[in-house]
Amino acid sequence: MMLRWLLTCGLLLALVACAAPSRIGGQAPAFERVGRFAVTLQPADGPAQAVQGGYAWRDDGQRLILDLSTPLGNVLARVQVDPGHATLEQADGQLDRATDADGLIARVWGHPMPVAGLRDWVRGQAVDGQPVQGLQADAQGRPEAFVQQGWQVRLGQWDAQGPRRIRLLREDAQGRWQLQLIVDDPAPLAR
Question: Of 42, 80, 38, 30, nearest to 55 (Cα)?
Fold first, then answer.
């Protein structure tokens, strides 16, 4: 009985370890986050779709790399955004390209959707030079909720790098889109 219990615990620990996404390596100083994501898409003309898993985010100011994995740690895709170029490489090797992140999402989903703001929102700030509505701040003066580029943005559970919880909601004629990012552990300060 004790052996069975130990094997079960060992298997569970191994699964949890596999599910934790790995940091993305690199030499340049970068903003990094590792955690979990959940996306729910409710197109106006079709059934709801949902996906969840892990993510690793690395942004050195020029290149953004985002790895997405299943809850068990299997790689789903890698998104890479460089100035003038964005790619999505799926686990099966399929490659999609566009000139920017917004164009890449439009190509993959077949529906235009502004997502470039996520690069700022994950750091806990609004996109510079873009209109912001309904800005609410927490007791420390950090943005807690606002609307920008058609997204309702909610930020919370801050650490030294920014929010550890990012919730986005967008509703338009095409449907309802929700995204939640949770940072699993505080990342080291940008190197």
Answer: 38
The shares of helix, strand and coil residues in the chain, as percent rounded to the nearest 5, are 15, 45, 40
AA letter at 97 = R
What domain count does the chain have?
A: 1
Structural domain contains residue 190: no
Helix (H, G, I), strand (E, B) or coil at 132: coil
What is the three-state SS of 19-36?
HCCCCCCCCCCCEEEEEE
Q: What is the C-alpha separation between 189 and 140, in angstroms, rounded?
A: 20
Q: Who's near 59: CB < 8 A, 6+ residues apart?
A: 30, 31, 32, 65, 119
CATH number of 44's domain: 2.50.20.10
> pTM, whole model, 2 decimals?
0.82
pLDDT per position as a tens digit, 47-66: 988 989 999 999 999 999 99
